[in-house]
């Protein structure tokens, strides 16, 4: 049982780390790079990113993180042994749930609105579309990056404690 607990916890650490890295990459490279682009390039680039990210690999990380966090917690709770890692796993679950709520409640609706705006030929319309999207999306991405990174840290600490027999 202890091995299964460790494997589920390791999987949760890995997937949560990948998602934290993805959001971090957007925060420090993708969005600052696009910020320097013309309105048409920005809008078209984000629309293409929004379409490309909807794939099985992203879904595996996005949903799989929570599944493995919950599995690690359940196995620790009901599988016997010390529950010293349980508070860290629970904290990670709450933080990662915040990531999902932020993504589905803020970033995805902003993506959908940007996509619905199309690629207007009017430069003023493009600027308005970008203006409604860019600042809010960046702010919410930073919040989810912090939450996701904190969840990753909690899980990494739980994995260390698991290795120490806690």
TrEMBL record:
It comes from the Bacteria. InterPro entries: Anthrone_oxy. Keywords: Membrane, Transmembrane, Transmembrane helix. The chain crosses the membrane at residues 56-78, 85-106. This is DUF1772 domain-containing protein.
């Amino acid at each position: 049982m202890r091995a299964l607990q460790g494997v589920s916890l390791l999987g949760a650490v890995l997937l949560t780390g990948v998602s934290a890295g993805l959001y971090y990459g957007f925060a420090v490279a993708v969005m600052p790079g696009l910020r320097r682009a013309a309105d048409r390039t920005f809008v078209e680039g984000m629309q293409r990113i929004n379409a490309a990210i909807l794939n099985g690999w992203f879904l595996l990380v996005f949903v799989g993180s929570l599944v493995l966090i919950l599995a690690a917690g359940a196995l620790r709770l009901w599988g016997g042994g010390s529950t010293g890692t349980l508070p860290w796993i629970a904290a990670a679950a709450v933080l990662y749930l915040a990531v999902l709520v932020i993504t589905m409640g803020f970033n995805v609706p902003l993506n959908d609105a940007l996509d619905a705006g199309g690629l207007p030929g009017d430069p003023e319309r493009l600027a308005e579309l970008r203006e409604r999207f860019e600042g809010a999306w960046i702010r919410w991405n930073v919040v989810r990056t912090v939450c996701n990174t904190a969840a990753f840290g909690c899980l990494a600490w739980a994995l260390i404690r698991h290795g120490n027999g806690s």
